[in-house]
Specification:
Layout lengths: L2 H19 L4 H8 L3 H25 L5 H21 L3 H28 L6 H30 L1 H22 L14 H6 L4 H22 L1 H8 L7 H22 L4 H22 L3 H29 L7 H25 L6 H11 L2 H10 L7
Length: 387
């Protein structure tokens, strides 16, 4: 894999640390800013909503600009809004910074996915995607627990400062090492309307919906994993970073494993992994009161969720190969439809007085809704390609 691809993954690591770290900071943010935990959970949903809208919009804005230039602009904006977030005492302002950070992250990831798959052979999209998304899973392993630990020791604002500082070397590395390219001239390549028409393909739409369901289930539980661990499992708050790290270790293993299979054997990954994921959510919902069961299931669920999810992203990139500017945006938006829906549904279950196990049950329901879509994909074509 090209070295520049790993530098893109470094930037994704910084951005994903911010996206996921709120799972360990929500109780502290809620107390400090005088809002409820479900209200604080809207920070995650706001980020996801910004990603949904931002992915296609930012990809279109960056379509006629050199990719390196667009990546640098998006990462610079991301850094600056984290400084504002670290300084504010107003929940509304913090919410706005999450939306702006999401727009910047969406643009970076949408263009980054397209750039990453453009750096490798046409049949190696899965491996390129796994490297880039490896930055996300490493954020779960290192960045998110570190953010939770900083928040526990020095307050939640310290985690925002850390993300801003972490983005700076990524910015410098991309400026120096990512190959430059020319802006796409007007009229070159397929037009915007032609790329958008790709969305009419039924198999692509089903794959996008499946990715949204799986990621919605992941975020539904992950957003409220800290209170689940402390209020249901009975772990002390100091153990929360370790629980988040376990999820991240599993996620990294899942993305790595899936990256080796997504180009050649996607359907076995989706079928077997999806079934195992449903069983895993059900087991966690039933066994969350047991510390040993929780500690065992959290990394397994991380591996399954990210392994299935990254395989679906690879399928989107293959299916939308003739939408070179927007393929990454389609994939990014699908993931974040789920990332927005999951915390909202989990928060609604909490507001309904159903307890901190409720988000896990919702995750099981979301994955349980996926087999019909998966069956459609299975009937749609050959095993090697969902096309």
């Amino acid at each position: 894999m090209p070295f520049a691809l790993y530098l893109l993954a470094l930037a994704v690591f910084a951005q994903s640390t911010s996206e996921f770290m709120l799972s360990g900071l929500l109780p502290d943010i809620a107390r400090d800013l005088g809002v409820s935990v479900p209200a604080a959970g809207t920070l995650t949903s706001a980020f996801a909503l910004g990603m949904i809208a931002g992915a296609p919009l930012m990809a279109l804005l960056g379509r006629r600009r050199p990719r390196r230039q667009a990546l640098l602009v998006f990462l610079s904006v991301f850094l600056l809004v984290h400084v504002v977030g670290a300084l504010t005492d107003d929940f509304g302002v913090l919410l706005a910074t999450r939306v702006l950070a999401a727009l910047a992250h969406a643009g970076f990831l949408a263009i980054g996915l397209t750039a990453a798959t453009g750096m490798v052979a046409p049949d190696a999209k899965g491996r390129a995607t796994s490297v880039l998304l490896g930055g996300t899973t490493l954020a779960c392993v290192v960045g998110v627990p570190a953010g939770a630990g900083l928040g526990h020791l020095f307050g939640w604002r310290s985690a925002f400062w850390a993300v801003a500082l972490l983005s700076a070397p990524a910015l410098a590395a991309i400026a120096r090492s990512v190959p430059g390219d020319r802006a796409e001239p007007a009229g070159a390549g397929p037009g915007v309307r032609a790329e958008l028409r790709v969305l009419r393909r039924p198999r692509l739409l089903v794959t996008l919906a499946l990715a949204a369901l799986v990621n919605g289930a992941t975020f539904c539980t992950f957003t409220y994993l800290a209170p689940l661990a402390t209020e249901v499992t009975g772990l002390r708050a100091a153990w929360v970073p370790g629980v988040l790290a376990l999820f991240g270790v599993g996620a990294f293993a899942g993305v790595t494993w899936a990256g080796r299979l997504a180009d050649r054997r996607p359907l076995p990954v989706l079928a077997a992994g999806g079934a195992a994921l449903l069983i895993g959510w059900l087991l966690l919902a039933l066994g969350a009161g047991n510390a040993a069961a929780t500690v065992l299931l959290v990394p397994v669920l991380g591996a399954l969720a990210f392994g299935v999810g990254s395989t679906l992203i690879t399928r989107v990139l293959y299916e939308a190969v003739d939408a070179p500017s927007l393929a990454g945006a389609f994939a990014t938006s699908a993931l974040n439809v789920g990332a927005a829906l999951g915390p909202v549904l989990g928060g609604a279950a909490l507001d309904g007085g159903l307890g901190y196990r409720a988000p896990v049950w919702v995750s099981a329901l979301l994955v349980g809704a996926a087999p019909a879509a998966l069956g459609f994909v299975r009937r749609g074509g050959r095993e090697r390609q969902v096309a």
